[in-house]
Amino acid sequence: MKGTNLGEFEELVLLTIAALVSNAYSVGICDELERQSGRAVKLGVVHAVLNRLEEKGLAKSKLGEATQARGGKRKRYYTITSAGKAALLKSKEVRDQLWNMIPELSIKRI
Amino acid sequence: MKVKNTRPPQWATRLLAWYCKSELLEDLEGDLFECFHRNLKIKSVWMSKLIYTLDVVKFFRLYTIRKPEFINLLINWIMIGSYIKTSGRSLVRNKLFSVINIAGLSISMAVGLLMIGVLLDTFSYDKFHENHKYIYRVISRYQFLDHKDNDFNATTSLLAAKSIKETFAGINEVAILRRGFEGDAHFGEKTIPLAGLWSNGDFFRVFSFLLLQGNPANALNAPFSVVLTEKSANKLFGNTRALGNVIKLGDRQYTVTGIVKDVPKFSHIQFDMLASLSSREITEKDNNNEMAWDDVWNTYAYVLLPKDAHFKTFQDNLNKLAKREDPKVKNTHIELKLQPMDDIVNGDNLNNQIGPTMGFTLLWIFGGLAIVVLLSACFNYTNLSIARSLRRSREVGIRKVIGANKTHVLEQFLIEAIMLSLVSLVAAFIIFLIFKPYFLSVHPDLQRVLVLDLSPKLIICFILFAVFVGISAGLFPALFFSNINAVHVLKNIASVKLFQKVTLRKVLIVFQYCISLMLITGTLVLFKQYKHFLTFDLGFSTENILNIDLQGVKAELVIKELTELPEVKGISQSALISSVGNYWGVDVKNPNNPEDSAGVYFNRVDENYIPLHGHVLLAGTNFSPRPDSAKESEIIVNQQVLKRFHLAQQDPAKAVGEILKVEGKLLTIIGVMKDFQYGKANNKTSKEVILRYKSHGLNYLNVKILSLDLPATIAKIQAIWKKIDPVHPYQAKFYDDQIEDAFQGLAASIKMAGSLAFLAICISSMGLLGMVVFTTETRLKEISIRKVLGAGEGGLLYLLSRSFVLLLGISILISMPITYIFFDKILLPNIANHAPLSLMEGLAGTLAVMIIAVLMISLQTLKVTRTNPAEILKNE
After folding, report:
1. Which of B731, B690, B654 is nearest to B578 (CA)?
2. A106 vs chain B: nearest CA distance in angstroms?
């Protein structure tokens, strides 16, 4: 069912929003993702994902203060909604269950 | 510091603002700005700018694009109606303004329409060939020792054409055309003169001429087969079956193997019939010249390149071919090149074209002039619109207060300009229709190449053209109005710097007048050259000589009948008519230096030629009558020949009796005549000429006529011709008329340049009139006050016209030197025997233009200075 399932990148972005708490705006999220995952993250892609998350109701946004660094433009801060939280928890749960199913021995042998 | 001051590229930001949804815009702009500054710290400025721009483009995604709002579209639509209405009203209200603009635009647009017609026509040539993109013509350039021809020939040698077909890898289809297949076709009782080409079997494979009857694969294979066009077949055979019939041409029989659909007008190859090239292998078996490498004057080769062929490889092969064959002919190099079929009619100017072409120099020159005249008319609109901005700016102010933004005002004024140009288009179209026949009759080649028929394509082009003209005329005023500040305009009209564009307007006026002056002076200079060449002293007399083209008829028959006419004072015969651009050359060996030889022009004449034309014999005697069967032994040379070969210290008397080797024959000089103009007077050709004797089978009769009633005499001669040869139309012209015909090209240029000059003068005069009217009107109050305070009429006249007269002076100072340099340094040095430039032409043209301009200025200002100041000031 489309709309509630999280894509891999969506999940990462949503987690970053939750982790950054009060500084979750597009460029900040981009930086954090780059730092954590070590891979180059395109701003355009993050934007598209943020837009989609908001459409799905998993995140919401509000405009902040204007700053000099952004040429007098305001930042758009994202926060996670309860639906977002539920989605994150659900996907974590699925993963945990799968992890638990793996016998300790078999993973050590690889 | 530098980092702080650098800003991202503005246009990219604007692009983002244009396409992006307003609710997303601020966020995106901020993000990009932040990234840009981050990049500045680690990367170069231009790199950061590039990344910024790329990011702007990358953000162009479905979710960011602004959706057009229905309401905006609706408002736009409604407003367009309103704009049309208000524009119409304003056009009607300002009658002078509208009349000046419509008149100027319509006459200049008529010129533009003609140009569009010409371009469309020339670009539609040869497009009916299915493979026109892949057909190339092999063209060649002849070089003897160091003497290289300027232009390529459209022709090449038969040898080259055949080598390409037989030896070039991957080239299978080469249509070889050879000119000179013409004559009277006999079938039964009927005799029809037809002209055509020799061609090989590839003709129908390369070109898309439609064969109605016969087999395209082998119609032109067998010797002595002929393919007729539908029209010529109908003439010869009527409604009976044509295929398989045998027609007689000259002393050969040709079998009709095909009927081809009539050649379309837009084909640069025109013919009545085609004969198989293989026939020539039989008829010209003993002609060594047929397959000569340096006979590059008669054969056309059209190659169908395979779609994947490499142009460069082909050119390399051509060069290799030239390298291989060059040594076979001493001191000669033939350069071969490919010319795309699509470039033939409007491409480079080549010699020996198969049919009339336009040549791109001519197209460029007249296209350029047409655009200049058009610009001149557009400038009128620009100038006058800004000049009367005083009236319109209040309207713009109110519109802006009510809620119009820049785009709306811009749109309104553009629509106004386009409306005006569409109205002008209607007038221009009528002018176009009226002047089309005159334009085509300016030069016979124009008539042959162009049709200028109306087609939907042409009409669409016209309308697009009108819209384009409207936009280019109206863009500047529209920008000017859209930038007007509403508050300033409504608060105090005087505070708006309405005349801040004064410099620009002055520049435009100076430009218009420069163009007018250059065109009129140029026309006068050309006209003087033309007159000069028509009255040029050729060194012999052409007066009252009628040259009759014999067209193969026996001269004796005509001479016998003509001598019975009392008006005929003398008759001579010649092989060609000199001084009108015909040239026959022959190789002559220098008797003093066996290594040296030179090409010398010659003419074959009978014994009456020299006295009839009044050539001056400096020494020796004229030819004496002699049967043609006797071996050729005598020539008459001119002084230049003595000079060229250093004969007898150039003393004519001593040169008589010297022997020259001409074409391998030893000929004795029996007479030396004064130099005369053999070639066209404006051609830079060598001047060595020899006359050779012949009394039978020459091409022209030169008939000296002394008659009081010329038309009656001509009618008598015509009747005689009809009696002797009922098949061929009578073709005779007076020598002086032929010389005039030879300068037809120049005459045509003068007519075209003259009409453009006239238009340019009209347009700039009208523009100036408009400007004077508007500026004097705006200064009406000032003038009234000056009058009340005691200013005299003369003083006011000076005050008002000073600036305009100054502008005219500046245009003279700019245009005269340019015209002088153009003619004196560029154009005239290329024309031999040209008349020297004189101050007269410059002065006459300038004076005429200036008188018109000054008359207009003074009349208008006089009108204003004569107004009663009380009338104007009482309403304050």
Report:
1. B690
2. 46
Q: How many contacts does A have with B, using Cβ atoms within 8 A?
A: 44
- Local structure of residue B130 (DSSP, 8 states): T
Query: Is A74 in Cβ contact with B31 (below 8 Å)?
Result: no
The whole-angstrom separation of Cα B479 and Cα B456 is 34
Q: DSSP letter string over B421-437?
A: HHHHHHHHHHHHHHHHH
Question: Stretch B690-695: mean pLDDT, rounded?
Answer: 89
Q: State the smallest CA–CA distance between residue A47 and chain B in angstroms.
A: 9
Question: Which residue of chain B is at minimal alpha-carbon distance from A49?
Answer: B63
Is B33 close to A74, i.e. CB distance below 8 A? Answer: no
State which H helix or E strand residue B587 sits in: strand B585-589
Asked if the model's pLDDT at residue A1 lies above 70, the reply is no
Nearest to B10 by CA among B41, B42, B40, B36: B36
The answer to whether the CB of B476 falls within 8 A of the CB of B388 is no
Contacts of A28 in chain B (CB under 8 A): none
Q: Which single residue is written with the structure tokens 């006089």?
A: B862
Closest-CA residue of chain B to A76: B27
pLDDT tens digits, one per residue of B793-818 = 888 888 888 888 899 999 999 999 99
Q: Quote the CA–CA distance of B468 and B418 in Å, as a whole number.
A: 8
When pLDDT is cut at 50, 70 and 90, the band that residue B174 belongs to is very high
Please indicate whether, in this complex, the C-beta atoms of B29 and A63 are within 8 angstroms of each other. no
Task: Note the ipTM here.
Answer: 0.84
Using CB atoms, pick whichever of B29, B35, B59 lies closest to residue A27: B35
At B183, which amino acid appears?
Answer: G
Query: Strands B252-260 and B225-229: what pairing?
Result: parallel
Cα–Cα distance measured from residue B444 to residue B744, given in angstroms and rounded to the nearest whole number = 9
Phi and psi torsions of A77, nearest 5° = -90, 140
pTM: 0.74
Alpha helices of B441-501 — where are they, by DSSP H?
A: 444-449, 456-482, 486-491
Nearest CB neighbour to B30, from listed A44, A51, A73: A73
Helix ranges (H only) for chain A are: 8-20, 26-37, 43-56, 82-101, 104-109
Tens of pLDDT, residue by residue over B468-487, are 999 998 998 888 888 888 88
Which residues of B fall below an 8 Å CB-CB distance to A? 24, 26-31, 33-35, 37, 55, 58-59, 61, 63
